Structure formats: C-alpha cells, structure tokens
Amino acid sequence: xxGHRDQxxxxxxxxxxxxxxxxLNIFKRLGIERPSYLDVGAYHPFDxxxxxxxxxxxxxxxxxxxxxxxxxxxxxxRPDDIILPVGxxxxxxxxxxxxxxxxxxxxxxxxxxxMTLGIVRSEELPVTTLNAIVEDLGGIxxxxxxxxxxxxxxxxxxxxxxxxxxxxxxxxxxxxxGDTSHELAALMEAKGCTLHSWAGNNMIFIxxxxxxxxx
Length: 215
Known about the structure:
Elements: H1 19-30, E1 37-40, H2 52-56, E2 61-64, H3 71-77, E3 82-84, E4 87-88, E5 93-100, H4 111-117, E6 119-128, H5 130-135, E7 144-147, H6 153-158, E8 168-172, H7 181-190, E9 193-199, E10 202-207, H8 211-214
Parallel strand pairs: 1-2, 1-7, 2-3, 4-6, 7-8
Antiparallel strand pairs: 5-6, 8-10, 9-10
C-alpha cells in the first residue's frame, strides 16, 4: 500500500468517488477494524470497487456478481471471499440479464434501464434475495452492504429484513436513469437507517442507533 504513514487508510482508493475511504472512516468511528461486507453488483475485484481496499486491509465478505466473465477475476484476486455468480432480485428464481452497449458495469436485470443503455444480448440467470444470502450466514448481516444493481436497488431493499444490521449501507441513488434519493431516504428511514453522507452518486446510510457514535 502507498501513502504517508499518517494516512489512516493509506493513499489509494479503488472506489469511484472515494467511497471506500468514507466507509472505513465510519467503521473506525464504530471501533470496527475489519468490517465484513456483502458487495452486490460488485463488477470487478479492483476497478470501481467499494470493497477492494477493505479486503486489502484484512476484511472478508461475500461478493455477488452475475456477470460470469468477472467470476475468475474475483476468484483469483479475492481467494478468501465467497464469490456468488448470481443476481439479486426481490424474488428468487430466474431473470433475464441484459448485456448493454454502455460500460460493462451497467449490466442489469432491469429491462427499462437496459433499454436506455442499448441492449446487446441477454441470457437467463439465477437470482436470489438479500434475505436468502443472509439466512445462509446464520441470519447475521455483514457490517457493510454495498448495493449497485442498476435499477432494482429500491425493489431489492424493500424486501430486505434488516433487524440489527447491516451497520452501513451504500447504494447508488442516480445511475443516469433518474434520481431515487428521496425514495431511498424514506425507505431506509423505515428500516432504522439515516443518511450519513453522499459519495458522488451514492448515498451512505448508517443505523440510527449508531448516529451518536459517528456524527
């Protein structure tokens, strides 16, 4: 890692807007040195990754990325993570996965979003739910939920049962298809979370119960 010795989190960011540095700062305030994570729509092990820096610093978690072309790269770069080559949706089953002309990170299960990006081809892929993934973890949420699934974020979050976790949620509020920040804020408030900050187009939420320790 590069950077000055007094840079708490090093001198490198992998995330699009420095999101990983903001996340690490929140967890430092919470006294969590190596936060676990569930990275949904992870795209690439390093490029535009909210969790690559966390992995480098000793964190481990679950990576969910339905683009099978990225699977080998994740396995090679993140041997200690659990890599799930599936999609996440409101209901488990099978959905059409759209490959588009835009940046590969914009692949999506949402046809309306895909049509605005130029559909190249599609394929049927298995999808699961956030709750099902967490149930396989014994019902305990990882510390961080990073969600970037191009158009289905709100629908997927609506079906998630948070309980006592996750402690931090980062989700894209504007992917170029429209600003969903007001809907996201209301939804997350109903789940016991409050907006901590923005990182570019992403909203970072924390548990309301942790607000006094962070803000």
